[in-house]
Design a protein that fits this description.
The complex is a heterodimer.
Chain A lengths: L2 E5 L3 E2 L5 E8 L8 E6 L5 E7 L6 E3 L7 E6 L4 E6 L8 E7 L11 E2 L3 E5 L2
Parallel strand pairs in A: 2-11
Antiparallel strand pairs in A: 1-3, 3-8, 4-5, 4-9, 5-6, 7-8, 9-10, 9-11
Chain B lengths: L8 E4 L5 E6 L11 E6 L6 E4 L13 E6 L2 E6 L8 E8 L1 H4 L1 E3 L3 E5 L1
Parallel strand pairs in B: 1-9
Antiparallel strand pairs in B: 2-6, 3-4, 3-7, 5-6, 7-8, 7-9
Classes of the chains: A mainly beta, B mainly beta.
Chain lengths: 121, 111
């Protein structure tokens, strides 16, 4: 059974940095694109970033472009999200999600349980 | 990246049907056959209910169905049950520039 476990969420001050990690199991990790999707308190889902199965292609929402960096380590079955210059509106539960193929299409069969990032002074 | 447009709420009595719309543009919903629908209960991670417009993952009841016409996709839940009360989100692939866009979500209430 495919599983995703996120870690790294924390309370951080505005302007600070945080690195989220997602560890996958139960499937051939390098064969699937991965995404990060976030949900602000009492708000809807927002796609944040994606990376292809090989790691060669990365994509970002306009709201995080230039501040966030997605990366993956296929031998370790992990995908990370480095978040810099954090702002209050980055406060959200961040979900790791597995796409349905190596290039990605926004079809998320598997989700992690989420990790909470709070940006506040 | 503009969100896809969903009605904020929908409701129906047990056994009835409810249909939720998801309106985008030719650059997302209308341009690709990659529309998905997710169900989310409070405090839980989203669950995939429909993918590639009309397909159901294994284990999802056939009471859930999807369709698309032009720039608008729809999710229909037939034979409403109490456990269907949840938030529902659509998303669509939007090409290499915007990649993925979500709808704002629809709260379904079973009366």
């Amino acid at each position: 059974e495919a599983q995703l476990v996120e870690s790294g969420g924390d309370l951080v001050q505005p302007g600070g940095s945080l690195r989220l990690s997602c560890t996958a199991s139960g499937f051939t990790f390098g064969s699937f694109a991965m995404s990060w999707v976030r949900q602000a308190p009492r708000k809807g889902l927002e796609w944040v970033s994606a990376i292809s199965g090989s790691g060669a292609s990365t994509y970002y929402a306009d709201s995080v472009k230039g501040r966030f960096t997605i990366s993956r380590d296929n031998p370790k079955n992990t995908v990370d999200l480095q978040m810099n210059s954090l702002r209050a509106d980055d406060t959200a539960v961040y979900y790791c999600a597995r796409d349905n193929g190596g290039y990605g299409s926004g079809t998320y069969f598997t989700w992690g349980q989420g990790t909470l990032v709070t940006v506040s002074s | 990246q503009s969100a896809l447009t969903q009605p904020p709420s929908a409701s129906g009595s047990p056994g009835q049907s409810v249909t939720i719309s998801c309106t985008g543009t030719s650059r997302d919903v209308g341009g690709f056959e990659y529309v998905s629908w997710y169900q989310q209960h409070p405090g839980k991670a989203p669950k995939l209910m429909i993918y590639e417009v009309t397909k159901r993952p294994s284990g999802v009841p056939d009471r859930f169905s999807g369709s698309k016409s032009g720039n608008t996709a729809s999710l229909t839940v037939s034979g409403l049950q109490a456990e269907d009360e949840a938030d529902y989100y659509c998303n669509s692939f939007a090409g290499s520039n915007n990649f993925v866009v979500f709808g704002g979500g629809t709260k379904v209430t079973v009366l």
